[in-house]
Design brief:
Blueprint (H helix, E strand, L loop, with lengths): L3 H21 L11 E4 L5 E2 L5 E2 L7 E9 L5 E11 L11 E15 L5 E10 L30 E3 L4
Parallel strand pairs: 1-7
Antiparallel strand pairs: 1-2, 3-4, 4-5, 5-6, 6-7, 7-8
Length: about 160
């Protein structure tokens, strides 16, 4: 078993190829940073959002104070703080919010019907210890709780379709 600090280092190292790719691909002239969007949970386009709801189904993870690099390129990366509702995956009824450092990666540039381009997905990785340590990656919820499509804490790639 890999020690917890080593897992954090491995997670950051796993992101390194994406960071290098983001910095090495020149953006096409028609794909300038102002013409690239990232959809929010309702599909509304945003440019370089500083706050995003990461898990739309239950609002359990919100990324704040995002500082983006390589926006408009095939892969954009943001560093920020994730505000996490620990009770979204445990039975504590009242909500327990904590903050954790997070890396958010937007990728998969696609053309939208508006003529703009948008990132098709985001991926998030907690830096250091995961707030969901010990919680199954795909927990089983009763059917009356958000239905069968409710994502668990291990669901770290989130689609963001554009209009």
């Amino acid at each position: 078993m890999v020690a917890r600090p080593m897992r954090a280092v491995l997670a950051v190292l796993a992101l390194l190829p994406m960071l290098l790719a983001a910095c090495s691909h020149p953006a096409a002239p028609t794909t300038g940073p102002a013409r690239v969007r990232l959809a929010d949970c309702l599909g509304n386009p945003q440019v370089r959002p500083d706050v995003i709801t990461v898990v739309c189904a239950n609002n359990s993870i919100t990324a704040r104070d995002l500082r983006w690099s390589a926006w408009g390129k095939p892969v954009a990366v943001a560093l920020g703080t994730a505000v996490v509702d620990i009770c979204a995956y445990e039975d504590c009824h009242t909500g327990s919010y904590r903050s954790y450092p997070v890396v958010v990666v937007a990728s998969g540039l696609l053309p939208c019907s508006t003529g703009m381009k948008a990132y098709a997905r985001i991926q998030y990785v907690f830096v250091g210890r995961s707030p969901f340590h010990g919680v199954p990656a795909a927990p089983k919820f009763p059917s009356f709780w958000w239905g069968a499509s409710r994502p668990g804490p291990g669901y770290q790639v989130v689609p963001r379709p554009c209009r």
